């Protein structure tokens, strides 16, 4: 049974962006995705937020940027929340415009948004009034203000990505052909044991030189990085398939169930069974 649905948004080809202003919002929409970017501001409630394979609690004020086709959903207390959602096309700015120096922060933020980005409480608080004004403003000034909001968010400090890259199927660019080759190899062989030495051979390095190179480029040890990929892939299977947990364990390259459960809980804060149950609780048919 699929637990994620595709939403058809009301954004048209003639729109730069749309603003949806929901007072007394009801959280009755299942986990969903759509090709448009979405900036979502949730006020006056608390609950759980799902972005990809990230399930986290939020309180009072929550501001998240969600990339194209990234599954997402919120829960909260029905009838009390105020939710403002801004949706905009992936091509609302041309690729050439985004390569201009002044647009680099926005481009990099949009690239990361496929993982979901949450902003600090201070930044969120500073954006509330500006986002609320967009619900009533019209014309060219509203476009300028929207671009200004995106820029200010893109240069803000303490941004946090939410979903694991392997769940989304996207690895942050490292500007290295060798890292790209390594990622492709890891994805293709995720279901089996992978030794550091065999990956080092792909890029013609000794194991020790490869370890140093990999950590310098990714800021992670190879073993931790591979573990993250496996857990992200497992989370995707827990959400999108009905495979039993033992099958998922071995399909993701773990050689025993206890190690899989322990590693999953260390990374996600819950067991695979609890993770799947939380996903089911979100859905309201």
Shape: globular
Fraction of residues in β-strands? 15-25%
The Rg value, from CA coordinates, equals: 20 Å
Taking pLDDT < 50 over at least 5 consecutive residues as the criterion, the unreliable ranges are 281-285
Helix content: 40-55%
User: So what's the CATH class of the largest domain?
Assistant: Mainly Beta
Give the tally of structural domains. 2
Main beta-sheet annotation: 7 strands, antiparallel
Q: Secondary-structure element sequence?
A: EEEEEEEHHEHHEHHHHHHHH
Class per helix and strand makeup: alpha+beta
CATH superfamily of the largest domain: Regulatory protein AraC
Determine the number of helices (DSSP H or I, runs of at least 4 residues): 12
CATH architecture of the largest domain: Sandwich
Average pLDDT, rounded to a whole number, is 86
Q: What name is given to the CATH topology of the largest domain?
A: Jelly Rolls
> Distance between termini?
13 Å
Q: How many strand units? A: 9
Domain HTH araC/xylS-type: 180-278
InterPro entries: Homeodomain-like_sf, HTH_AraC, HTH_AraC-typ_CS, RmlC-like_jellyroll, RmlC_Cupin_sf, Tscrpt_reg_AraC-type_HTH
Keywords: DNA-binding, Transcription, Transcription regulation
GO molecular function: DNA-binding transcription factor activity; sequence-specific DNA binding
Kindly describe this structure.
The structure is a single chain. The protein has twelve helices and nine strands. The protein has 285 residues and is α+β, with helices and mostly antiparallel strands. It folds into two domains: 159 residues, Jelly Rolls (Sandwich); 115 residues, Orthogonal Bundle (Arc Repressor Mutant, subunit A), CATH 1.10.10.60. Strands 2, 4, 5, 6, 7, 8 and 9 form a seven-stranded antiparallel sheet that branches. β4 and β5 form a beta hairpin. α2 crosses α4 and α7 crosses α8. The C terminus is likely disordered.
């Amino acid at each position: 049974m699929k637990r994620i649905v595709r939403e058809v948004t009301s954004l048209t080809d003639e729109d730069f962006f749309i603003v949806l202003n929901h007072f007394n919002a009801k959280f009755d929409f299942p986990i969903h995705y759509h090709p448009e970017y979405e900036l979502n501001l949730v006020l006056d409630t608390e609950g759980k937020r799902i972005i990809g394979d990230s399930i986290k609690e939020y309180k009072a004020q929550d501001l998240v940027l969600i990339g194209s086709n990234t599954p997402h959903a919120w829960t909260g207390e029905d009838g009390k929340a105020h939710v403002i959602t801004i949706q905009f096309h992936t091509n609302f700015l041309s690729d050439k415009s985004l390569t201009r120096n002044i647009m680099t922060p926005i481009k990099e933020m949009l690239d990361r948004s496929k993982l979901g980005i949450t902003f600090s409480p201070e930044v969120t608080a500073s954006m509330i009034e500006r986002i609320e004004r967009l619900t009533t403003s019209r014309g060219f000034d509203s476009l300028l203000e929207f671009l200004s909001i995106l820029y200010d968010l893109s240069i803000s400090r303490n941004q946090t990505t939410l979903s694991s890259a392997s769940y989304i199927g996207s690895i942050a660019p490292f500007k290295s052909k060798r890292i790209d080759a390594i990622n492709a190899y890891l994805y293709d062989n995720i279901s089996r044991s992978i030794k550091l030495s065999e990956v080092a051979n792909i890029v013609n390095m000794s194991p020790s030189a490869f370890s140093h190179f990999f950590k310098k480029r990714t800021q992670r040890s190879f073993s931790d990085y591979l573990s993250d990929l496996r857990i992200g892939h497992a989370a995707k299977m827990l959400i999108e398939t009905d495979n039993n947990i033992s099958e998922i364990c071995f399909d993701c390259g773990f050689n025993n169930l206890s190690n899989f459960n322990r590693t999953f809980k260390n990374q996600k804060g819950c067991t695979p069974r609890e993770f799947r149950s939380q996903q089911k609780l979100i859905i309201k048919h």
